[in-house]
Every structure is written in structure tokens, then in C-alpha cells.
UniProtKB/TrEMBL annotation:
Residues 96-159 form the Flagellar hook protein FlgE/F/G-like D1 domain. The keyword Transmembrane helix does not apply. This is Flagellar basal-body rod protein FlgG. The lineage of its organism: Bacteria, Pseudomonadati, Pseudomonadota, Alphaproteobacteria, Hyphomicrobiales. The basal body constitutes a major portion of the flagellar organelle and consists of four rings (L,P,S, and M) mounted on a central rod. The rod consists of about 26 subunits of FlgG in the distal portion, and FlgB, FlgC and FlgF are thought to build up the proximal portion of the rod with about 6 subunits each.
Length: 261
């Protein structure tokens, strides 16, 4: 019975939906995390009677055809790139992006990755790096004699050296934006990679080129809404149960048919 296979596609799709929701919930406290959602599409249809086909020699036609679908499938899991809440941390190397931009990160293999996680640290050489130790791009090094670090909204990094009363410029933070942010490839470690779908990175200066500005001493939190995720989880669970009931119902119908024989 075809209903068995149709319902099985529904169960598979809702299982994938629950996996996406569980990943969102697991990353509720991940800095700069962007939630995903599962999107579905129906499968091919069997045309039993085509709409508009002729029913008589007098030109009458079928007003609405007869077609049976084949089920559903998960087609994509795009990220929702809305701004997360910004929380104060009082750490001088914590930087939040308020706007469209991504920090650029230099990977060990030479590729450039992108992140919204601005929880930076200093390497043993004084270089500003991510929590995973990847250097930001362009690289900025802070001498060990620096007493404090200041990061302006436009991304200019300066430090007070040797108790100087005037700060010294250390470098310029840049941000990248994309035409299609949802097309970025998730790499893990709060990093994304450019793809053909995202379009090329458009690099700019904070507060000037439409990439947003920076807030020192703050971090952007996850944009996951716990109430919404729980509601979506309950809806997915109910949809899964209903598809399971369809399979049970189809099985009972087949059993009744076999008993008639």
C-alpha cells in the first residue's frame, strides 16, 4: 500500500526536523550562534486524471484532476541570520558586531573563515586570535608591554604602551558581509566558509561600509528563542506521531484485506 511509503517519508522528514531543533537548543548559549530551520517540499505526483483533459466529444473537460503525491522530503536547513542579543562582559578583547558583518579568520590551511564570535584572546606572541587559536585577518599583534587595549566602533585597535598617556594604533579590524548569508557553509568552531551560494565576501571598515559597527566589552549571544524551539519541537513530535498512526492504519487495512481472502 502506497500510504506506507508516503507516511515513512513524513516520519523521516520530522526526524530531521527534530535533529535541527535539538541542535538549536544545544547551542542556546553558544556565542554568535545562528539558529537553523528545516524546510520541506512535496515529492512527485502520480497523475491519474489530468486536469483539463477531455471527458466527452462535446468539449467538456475535467475541472480538477486526480493526482496522488509521493510524500515529503527535507530540502534545506537555512540559518536565520538575525541579530542575537548583546551582553556586557567587561573583557577588553570581547567584541560584538552590531550589524551585518563577520570577523575574518585565517585558518591553518590558508583559507579565510568568517565568524560572529568576538571572544578573542592573545597568543603567546601577542597576536589577537579566536578561542580556538586562529588568527584574525588582518593580523594584529599587541606588545606584552601594553597596559590596556581599546577597540573603537570603527575597528581601530589601540593600546597604551609602557604606561603612556597617549594610545598607540596597533591595527584595523575589518568585517565582511555577504549577499546571501544563509548560503555560508558551517564549519564548526563558530566558523563559516564562503560558497558559490553566499557570493564573494565584501570586505569593509566598521561604521563606514555597511558592515555594522563594533562594541568592545560585549558579546553577541545566540539568536535561539527557547520558547519558539520548544513549540516547534512539540509540533514536530505530533507530526511524527500522526505519520506513525497512518502507517499503523494502513497496516490494519492490509491485514483486514488479507483476512478476507
Amino acid at each position: 500500500m502506497k500510504a506506507l511509503y508516503i507516511a515513512s517519508t513524513g516520519m523521516s522528514a520530522q526526524e530531521r526536523n527534530v535533529e535541527v531543533i535539538s541542535n538549536n537548543i544545544a547551542n542556546m548559549r553558544t556565542t554568535g550562534f545562528k539558529r537553523q530551520r528545516a524546510e520541506f517540499e512535496d515529492l512527485l505526483y502520480q497523475q491519474i486524471t489530468r486536469a483539463g483533459s477531455s471527458t466527452s466529444d462535446q468539449g467538456t473537460m475535467v475541472p480538477a484532476g486526480l493526482e496522488i503525491g509521493s510524500g515529503v522530503r527535507t530540502v534545506s536547513t537555512p540559518r536565520v541570520m538575525s541579530q542575537g542579543s548583546i551582553n556586557a562582559t567587561e573583557r577588553e578583547l570581547d567584541v560584538a558586531v552590531r550589524g551585518e558583518g563577520f570577523f575574518m579568520v585565517q585558518l591553518p590551511d590558508g583559507r579565510t573563515a568568517y565568524t560572529r564570535d568576538g571572544s578573542f584572546e592573545r597568543s603567546p606572541e601577542g597576536e589577537i586570535v579566536t578561542s580556538s587559536g586562529y588568527a584574525i585577518d588582518p593580523g594584529i599583534a599587541i606588545p606584552g608591554t601594553a597596559s590596556s587595549i581599546a577597540i573603537a566602533p570603527n575597528g581601530m585597535v589601540s593600546a597604551y604602551l609602557n604606561n603612556d598617556s597617549v594610545p598607540t594604533d596597533m591595527g584595523q579590524l575589518q568585517l565582511a558581509r555577504f549577499v546571501n548569508k544563509s548560503g555560508l557553509e558551517s564549519l564548526g568552531d563558530n566558523l563559516f566558509l564562503e560558497t558559490a551560494a553566499s557570493g564573494p565576501a565584501q570586505v569593509g571598515i566598521p561604521n563606514a561600509d555597511g558592515v555594522g559597527n563594533l562594541l568592545q566589552g560585549y558579546l553577541e549571544m545566540s539568536n535561539v528563542n527557547s520558547v519558539t524551539e520548544i513549540a516547534d519541537l512539540i509540533a514536530a513530535q505530533r507530526a511524527y506521531e500522526m505519520n506513525a498512526r497512518v502507517i499503523s492504519g494502513a497496516d490494519e487495512m492490509m491485514q483486514s484485506t488479507s483476512q478476507l481472502r
